[in-house]
Design a protein that fits this description.
332 residues, alpha/beta, Quinone Oxidoreductase, Chain A, domain 1, 2 domains, 7-stranded mixed beta sheet, 6-stranded parallel beta sheet, 10 helices, 27% helix, globular, binds NADP nicotinamide-adenine-dinucleotide phosphate, ADH-like_C, oxidoreductase activity, ER
């Protein structure tokens, strides 16, 4: 495979959001260093993290100008020194948290590259290394979900939320899902037992009503802002768990006084990148469990809505504006 010296890519030029994401034609094709691989990207996953990075709210995120996109799938085009077990031409998916996936070529750490499952197109594997393990980690090792429990899943029509709903139903939970009104049918079709308007002011009251006044055993909290307080109020006293893994609706404070006098619940933070680094054994268990879910057909092959690379700024703006459903992808 001949590798060009320059490529098309989406470059973020400020921290003012997706409006300053630009298509460039002369980005240098990166070279894989020791332990790295160069992947010819055929499909890049769009994640809310791309918005956080473009707004500068992602802790330790890349500084502009940078090539955007963290999730890339494609074909191994070159391998760096010391890389074994990955053949040129193999199809893989991986994450590069400092960006570069919205491009024709991307460098990825070889150890984190996961083979695209046999028989799947590259784009059908999007979700496999970001959304699905995050949802699974929230439900199982951190959330401790068991059959018969009730789980409240926010942003249930989104890339991460849809996977969470499917898995929670597979584990025998009752699912209360939240989504904007136009997305409710999608979430119902995934098997959610109840779908609540994510923009409703009385979210907590509605969840309490649906749970006979006790609240949910587990809450997947990816929203924050005013919704965090509603989530805490909608959680079962003493035994209920709230997994906080997103802040799309803004930051929100909770005090020790709140935990003692208002919300006697378990509050747990999740960042999948840190989980991989700090608890590789738990991540290994998550990926092992996910293999079983793939084999059983609970997850995948994914069906992302795919756009041309040049449409990236518009797609990201729509994601930020809550106008999208499901997993989104860009084709370089
Ligand atoms: N911590 C981690 O390691 C990790 C890893 C992956 C993802 N995440 C988090 O998981 C969440 C979902 O990510 P995703 O990439 O799959 O995105 P997504 O769910 O496809 O899209 C975000 C959705 O969040 C909902 N939302 C609620 N309030 C919002 C607001 N104020 N602004 C924008 N959206 C709002 C919207 O759904 P409705 O309009 O239907 O309510 C929107 O469609 C994000 O919070 C992301 O940061 C965290």
């Amino acid at each position: 495979m001949s590798i060009p010296s320059t490529m098309r890519a989406l470059q973020q030029t400020s921290l003012n959001g997706p409006q300053d994401l630009r298509l460039i034609n002369d980005a240098p094709v990166p070279r894989p260093g020791p332990g790295e691989i160069l992947v010819r990207i055929t499909a890049a996953g769009v994640n809310f993290v791309d918005i956080s990075q473009a707004r500068g709210t992602f802790a330790g995120g890349p500084q502009p100008p940078y090539l955007a996109g963290i999730e890339g799938a494609g074909e191994v085009a070159a391998v760096g020194e010391g890389v074994t077990g990955l053949e040129l031409g193999a199809h893989v998916i991986g994450v590069g948290i400092t960006g570069g996936a919205f491009a024709e070529y991307m460098v990825l750490p070889a150890v984190g590259a996961v083979p695209v499952p046999a028989g799947w197109a590259d784009e059908q594997a999007l979700g496999l290394v970001v959304n699905w393990p995050t949802a699974l980690a929230a439900l199982k090792p951190l959330g401790g979900l068991t059959a018969g429990q009730t789980v409240l899943i926010h942003a249930a029509a989104g890339g991460t939320g849809q996977a969470a709903v499917k898995m929670a139903k597979h584990y025998g939970a009752t699912v209360i899902a939240t989504a904007s009104p136009g997305k409710h049918e999608v979430v119902r079709a995934l098997g959610a037992d109840h779908v609540v308007d994510s923009r409703a002011a009385d979210l907590a009251a509605e969840v309490l009503r649906l749970t006979g006044g006790t609240g949910a055993d587990l809450v997947l909290e990816s929203v924050g802002g005013a919704t965090l307080d509603a989530s805490l109020a909608a959680t079962k006293r003493v035994t209920g768990r709230v997994i906080v893994y997103g802040v799309v609706g803004g930051e929100a404070a909770i005090t020790n006084w709140d935990l003692v006098y208002r919300h006697q619940i378990h509050l747990i933070g999740l960042n999948i990148g840190i989980l991989i680094q700090a608890a590789p054994q738990i991540f290994g268990e998550v990926m092992g469990e996910m293999s079983g879910l793939l084999a059983a057909g609970v997850l995948g092959p994914g069906q992302p809505t795919t756009y041309e690379l040049a449409e990236g700024p518009k797609v990201l703006a729509e994601l930020e504006a809550r106008a999208t459903v499901g997993k989104l992808a860009l084709r370089p």
